Write the structure tokens for this entry.
Amino acid sequence: MNKFTPIFGLLILFLSISGCAKPEQADIGFWKSEDCKKVSEAAGFFLYTSGELLKTADKERQAGSEKKSEKTYAAAMFFSELSENSAKNFEAFCKK
């Protein structure tokens, strides 16, 4: 999992940024547009990372590294779920 360390570092950064988002209008719960942009960028980053990990997992499987491939597939699923969650937050808090 050492090759995923930088990715997890970025993940922690994005999550801390999105966790600091303050609502633009407290009574209706919408976020500031700059915070929404960060959530949208995070969703895109997570989705891109998931796709790259899927490519890597396919190469590992073709090379005969089944266990390594399964771990990489699991990491791809993790990032895919992060992307989905970010997209849901964007839709809930950023669409007016």
Observations:
- The helical segments are 5-19, 33-62, 66-94.
- The mean pLDDT is 81.
